[in-house]
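sry for the spam today, last one i promise. struct tokens for design, 488 residues
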């Protein structure tokens, strides 16, 4: 793997990256109330008295949110802390009705774990381990809306109290590509586990990007934090811009200020938002309204038993079945694709053949029609039927493409289309021999040239035979019978 270096005026620089990912927990309600969490609702229609911090309202933890965070921790091989506690993080802002956020600073639910990532798509076997420091559970704040009135800002509390997992990496990443691979892998695992939908465009997964630079071998430099970046591509752009900006500042004789910055996706640049607070600025203390969380073995065992086969394990299983490492990576990247492909294998398809067909024919058709695999008009069972008709010689490759196009348009099964349209491949040697005889009789010049040593014309005779038979002749039988006829 090539090391990522930035060439400055004073030599080479290394970038040091850590990510804090806020992932919205998939659950039936908010972290401490029964209010709904559906995306796109009208402002302030999903707000309970707890979320609005009405006097006398007490938080009650949502067990499903805790369960999902524990399952996520298990999926990244992290330490699950049987005893954890909620803290109050005090700050004052218009979208935070309580005047504090309930979070977990001192005793998080999940401790250290890791992800193994592949930054180079062309070499999926070259992996790097990224440490994860912790996962803590916290409530989200509301949202200020500045575009509703020329002189006022409005507050929407629909997100107030929504459950978040904050997944904090160690500063182990050294390039935009590694950060992109880490986020991609983390998003994939969250979606496999079902603990977060990973919809970054809807704000249910976003990243705070910590970046510093240093000369090789030096101590870590001062870092900046770029807040709430909501796409993997934007995270990579923010890292590249911020690293180059910091190098320019340092080489220009300036110093890096520890601060919070914002990313502008239109320009690909970051700008200063505020100086970075330290933990003591928030005056953390244990939340007096909430008892510590104590997890028993039965709860942990239920969480562990509920985990699905995860991307790495699935990829290794596919590779063991004869699928290439690259295809296995593509097929396991998104949980919907992996589930569709597993259903195809369960319906009897041969792994390597199925992988080739999905990667080329199915993905090509879905891209062409603007569909995802979740709304594919062809089901795994129908695809398995099509591949079986190719395997048993009923369909040639070209006929299979024709049948697949009809399947896409009509939703019919392959067998029904073959019968209805008479598309069955023929291996009738008598019929094929008769057509070959006609082709040779119609092309005496080419026949003479072939028998005179121009063997490249063999393909011409195959094409003419297949054309005469409407593409329905078995190519293997055609080749065999042509060789005999041409030799005579």
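last one done:
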């Amino acid at each position: 793997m090539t090391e990522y270096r930035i060439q400055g005026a004073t030599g080479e620089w290394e970038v040091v990256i850590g990510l804090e990912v806020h992932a919205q927990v998939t659950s039936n309600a908010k972290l401490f109330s029964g209010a709904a969490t559906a995306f796109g609702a009208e402002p302030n229609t999903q707000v309970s008295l707890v979320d609005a911090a009405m006097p006398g309202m007490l938080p009650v933890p949502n067990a499903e949110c805790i369960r999902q965070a524990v399952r996520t921790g298990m999926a990244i091989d992290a330490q699950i802390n049987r005893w954890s506690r909620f803290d109050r993080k005090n700050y004052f802002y218009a979208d935070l009705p309580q005047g504090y956020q309930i979070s977990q600073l001192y005793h998080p639910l999940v401790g250290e774990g890791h992800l193994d990532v592949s930054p180079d798509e062309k070499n999926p076997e070259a992996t790097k381990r990224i440490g994860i420091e912790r996962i803590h559970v916290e409530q989200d704040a509301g949202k200020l809306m500045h575009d509703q009135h020329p002189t006022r800002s409005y507050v929407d509390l629909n997100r107030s109290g929504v459950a978040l997992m904050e997944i904090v990496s160690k500063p182990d990443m050294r390039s935009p590509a590694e950060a992109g691979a880490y986020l991609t892998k983390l998003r994939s695992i969250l979606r496999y586990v079902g603990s977060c939908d990973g919809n970054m465009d809807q704000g249910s997964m976003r990243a705070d990007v910590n970046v510093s630079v240093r000369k090789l071998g030096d101590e870590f430099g001062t870092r900046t934090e770029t807040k709430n970046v909501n796409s993997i591509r934007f995270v990579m752009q923010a890292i590249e811009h911020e690293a180059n900006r910091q190098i320019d500042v340092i080489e220009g004789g300036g110093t890096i200020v520890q601060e919070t910055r914002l990313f502008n996706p239109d320009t690909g640049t970051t700008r200063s938002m505020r100086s970075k607070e330290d933990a003591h600025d928030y005056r953390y203390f244990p939340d007096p309204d909430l008892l510590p969380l104590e997890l028993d073995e039965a709860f942990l065992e239920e969480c562990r038993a509920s985990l699905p086969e995860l991307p790495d394990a699935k990829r290794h299983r596919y590779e063991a079945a004869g699928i290439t490492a690259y295809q296995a990576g593509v097929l396991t990247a998104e949980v919907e694709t992996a589930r569709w492909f597993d259903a195809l294998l369960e319906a009897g398809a041969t792994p390597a053949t199925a992988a080739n067909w999905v990667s080329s024919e199915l993905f090509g058709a879905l891209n062409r029609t603007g569909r995802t695999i979740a709304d594919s008009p062809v089901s795994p069972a129908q695809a398995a039927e099509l591949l079986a008709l190719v395997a048993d010689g009923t369909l040639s490759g070209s006929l299979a493409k024709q049948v697949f196009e009809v399947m896409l348009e009509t939703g019919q099964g392959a067998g029904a289309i073959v019968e209805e349209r008479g598309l069955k491949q023929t291996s009738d040697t008598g019929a094929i021999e008769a057509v070959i005889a006609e082709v040779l009789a119609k092309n005496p010049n080419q026949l003479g040239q072939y028998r005179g040593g121009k063997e490249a014309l063999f393909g011409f005779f195959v094409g003419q035979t297949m054309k005469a038979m409407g593409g329905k002749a078995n190519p293997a039988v055609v080749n065999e019978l042509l060789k005999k006829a041409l030799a005579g």
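The first strand starts at residue 6 and ends at 8. ok im logging off now
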